[in-house]
Structure formats: structure tokens, C-alpha cells
Amino acid sequence: MVDKIFEKSIKKQFEFDEDVASVFDDMLNRSVPYYKQTQELTIKFALNYLNKNDVVYDLGCSTASTLIELGKHSKYDLKLIGIDNSSAMLARASKKCKAFGIDIELRNDDLLNTSYENAKLIISNYTLQFIRPLQREKLIQKIYNSLDKDGIFIFSEKVISSNKTLNKQCIDIYYDFKKQQGYSEYEISQKREALENVLIPYTEEENKKMILDAGFSHCETIFKWVNFATFIAIK
Question: At a CB cut-off of 8 Å and minimum separation 6, what does 42 contact?
């Protein structure tokens, strides 16, 4: 379905409810620059590290697109686990998994409360930014502790610039991108208002510091477009 959620006046904060779940794949492709390309990049990097029966988590898996693509491209059988706290998202994820014939364990749970077994890979696509800063640092520590000694964490985030002028320019360029995808200025302003105090982005440097402070040996930016970035962290 085509994303038309913000054509009408929104009177609540953004949430991943049934309305959003029903158009989420279209929303991602039209709202996140180079989403498909960064997803492909995530999978290509991931395949360098994965072996038979390795455990992979996707935190905030939404409709499970990334895990499905990983399952399709891996030459090994993997234990794929998607976690999300939106039942609407997971219902759609379940249907997609069956349609593609990919075996994925889907958990409806809070990322901080659920237990993780030792994993080779943990993925988080535009999820951390929705977690409050203090809780975000706790989650990163939990991710680090849950990874095997040679495990990796691949995550994508919306980022901000510490330079106010550059940050404003980045936002303007991003809004131009959204207009090119068919969103009106009204839709853009409605979504911006709905996301206020819900989506809290860090700078690129803050993201890397948070990762290194948790104990990771290295954190590299492997893709960046204006105010969107993808990172790989090595334990």
C-alpha cells in the first residue's frame, strides 16, 4: 500500500500501529534515502562473518525484510530471530516469512527486557533512534554482551550535525528528497511534528562513542548520505 498517512491532520505522536504497518515498506523506500542499497550493503557485510547455524538478531525487525533477504542470500542455515514490540508489524512479518519460505523466529517483546543467546550478528535498522538516550546506552551494552567474541553489530541511524548551519542544510536536502518521492510539504510537516521527541538522533561521532564505550574494538561508517548513516561495529 502507498503511504498516505500524513495527508490528514495527525493528533498523536508517531507510533508503529496498524496504520503505519500497512504502508511501512512503502514508507521506508520513500522516506529513507538509499534504503534498499543500505539493506543490500548490510547483507553483503554480514555474509562475510556468518557460518552454519550462527544466530542472527534483527532488533526492531518491523516486517522482517532484512532477515528475509539475509535468509535468501546465505548459503548456510542460520537461526534468524526478529524482535519488535509492534504486534501489527509482526503480523505482517509472519505473512511475508511464509510467502518467501524463510524460517524466522518472531518475538513480540521489548528490546531491553528480552533475553538474547550468544549471537554472531545483531542488526538494528533505524531502531536505536527511537529509544531514549539512557536506555539506548544500556541496550548497546546488552548487545555487546550478547555477541560472540568475534561477533558484529550492523546498524543504521538518522544522524544530526553538531554544526547548526550544516544540520539545517542537511534537513533541507532531506526534505527535498522526500518531495521528489511524492510527499507534499504538508505531509512532511505533519510527520515531523508526529516524530518530535519520539525520534532522537545522535551525531555520527556520538554513535561511535557510544559503541566504543560499550567495549567494541572498532566502529566504522560504511555508508552515509547527508543525515543517514550505516555503521559496523566489531567486538
Answer: 66, 123, 125, 154, 156, 230
Expressed as residue numbers, the domain containing 109 is 5-234
Q: Is there a binding annotation on residue 136?
A: no
Q: CA of 155: how far to CAs of 18, 28, 36, 59, in Å?
A: 25, 15, 14, 9
The answer to the question of whether 35 is labelled as a binding residue is yes
- DSSP one-letter code for 235: -
Instruction: Dump pLDDT digits (tens) for 68-78.
Output: 999 999 999 99
The verdict on whether residue 30 carries a ligand-binding annotation is no
- Total count of residues recorded for the chain: 235
For residue 192, say whether it is annotated as part of any ligand binding site: yes
Over the Cα atoms of the chain, what is R_g?
17
- Could you read off the pLDDT of 114-159 as tens digits, one per residue? 989 899 999 999 999 999 998 999 999 999 999 999 999 999 999 9
**Cell numbers for 78:** 542460520
Q: What is the CATH number of the domain that holds 179?
A: 3.40.50.150
Q: How many domains does the chain have?
A: 1
Supply the pTM of this predicted model. Answer: 0.87
Amino acid at 73: H
Nearest-angstrom CA–CA distance, 199 and 133: 11
> If residue 203 lies in a helix (H) or strand (E), which one and from where to where?
strand 202-203
53 is in an annotated binding site: no
Residue 110 counted as an annotated binding residue: yes
